[in-house]
Amino acid sequence: MKVVRSWSSVIGVSVAVAGLWLATNASSADEPKPEASPPKTDAPAEPAKAESAEDLIKQLEQLSHRRPTGNSRDEFIASFTNTQREILEAAEKLLAHPDAAGDKGDKLAAGALGAKISALRLLTRLGDKKASGEVTELLKKYSDDKRPQVSEVVTTAALAERFTPAPDAKPEALKAMVADAKQYFAPLKLRLEHVMIMKGLTDHLEQRDANTEAADALTSFGELLSKSDDKRFVQLGQQFQRTARRLGLMGKPMEVYGTMLDGKQIDWKSYRGKVVLVDFWATWCGPCVKELPNIVNNFEQYHGRGFDVIGVSVDDDRQRVDDFVAQRKVPWTITMDKDFKAAGKEGPLAIQYGVAGIPTAILVDREGKVVSLNARGPELGRLLGELIGPPEKAKEEKKAEEKK
Fold first, then answer.
1. pTM for the structure as a whole
2. Mean pLDDT of the chain
3. In angstroms, rounded to a whole number, what is the distance separating the alpha carbons of residues 125 and 123?
4. 304 near 384, Cβ under 8 Å?
5. Is residue 203 included in any domain, yes or no?
6. Does residue 38 lie within any of the structural domains?
7. What is the DSSP string of 21-54?
8. Which tens digit of pLDDT belongs to each residue from 81-106?
9. CA spacing 20 to 30 A to 164: which of 122, 234, 321, 337?
10. Residue 279 belongs to what H/E stretch?
11. How many structural domains compose the chain?
12. Distance between terminal CA atoms of the chain?
């Protein structure tokens, strides 16, 4: 995404993981809240009251649901990073709190430890190399802790670390990790933490464009989840298999179908012989709208030489799409399917190919085979230059034609 595949996927991890142990395991202390005293102007200020465990828990819960702010990607990331550091600070205070000590503090310590590990892992994904080492040290520090809840957090976190690729991991290492994960999870009765680790691994692989390894893992995990008694796991398994279908498209034909805005079904065969960009987008998607001028520019340069675009809208509001297309004068075909039965296959095209984030821009060559799963920005122009020829060549061809 990638919409990182977009940054929204990172936010989702923060909310789902950072708050997980707090939401399920942490218990608040029954401390009475001190009454506020009026300030004294003729005496030294009293030292600040120590934060209660209850206050720290509330702070962590609020932070885990805080949405990043900003008008640019850098501001967005900076806001998110700052939140993770605040989570670390609050979690450290909670771990050091007397209520988190001993057997009675098991649940509280587990919640704080889970929040801290999650924040460190998210910072690692954002490029903080120091954070990765801190996770290792933290797991080592609590590896001998016999408290059941804490021990479970450490075991799960260690397993997540085992199946999290290093930033500089080579393709061979990624393949080995996928093979290890498939062997490890195959005989288990899957629990939520297992599924979250599977999802984390496949997300990492996809974000790094390790599409072959990601497709392999998604296919295997999808088969395992489809056998679960938990309907949520079964549904996720189906999503895994659809995503694997998309990631496995490189070098293979792609089938495109859908209902155009005029109500007719698109004729994919009529595009054979053209280079086609299949652009999954929505009117409400900021990155999609931002990418539009780039697509328009390439369309104007290459359309007459065999380039076309099919915009696959995932909007819910048909009128909004009609208005957007009219206002922006979008020159290519737009499809929009909401009726699963009418769309055929497993549903609309976005579902058929497991598109979980937008924009997703897939480029198909003249033979109908996929040559890119992320043809956006300068990459689109570069690929069109290779497949059709640079714009300068078109000018030369035009001049040659005029001389005849």
1. 0.70
2. 85
3. 5
4. no
5. yes
6. no
7. HHHHT-----PPPPPP----SSSPPPPPPPPPHH
8. 999 999 999 999 999 999 999 999 99
9. 234
10. strand 275-281
11. 2
12. 47
- Cα 328 to Cα 75, 237, 266, 323: the distances in Å are 28, 38, 22, 8
DSSP per-residue codes, 319-358: HHHHHHHHHHT--SEEEE---HHHH-TTSSHHHHTT--SS
The verdict on residue 259 lying in a domain is: no
Q: What pLDDT is attached to residue 103? A: 95
> Which residue range(s) make up the domain with 277?
268-395
Does one domain contain both 277 and 240?
no
> Any idea what DSSP says for residue 250?
B
pLDDT digits (tens, 9 = 90+) for 34-62: 344 444 445 555 555 668 999 999 999 99
Q: How far apart are CA 113 and CA 117, in angstroms?
A: 6
* Residue recorded with tokens 């089938």: 255
* Nearest residue to 274 (alpha-carbon basis) of 249, 310, 248: 310
**What are the structure tokens assigned to 258, written together?**
């859908």
Q: Which residues of the chain have pLDDT under 70?
A: 1-50, 339-347, 392-404
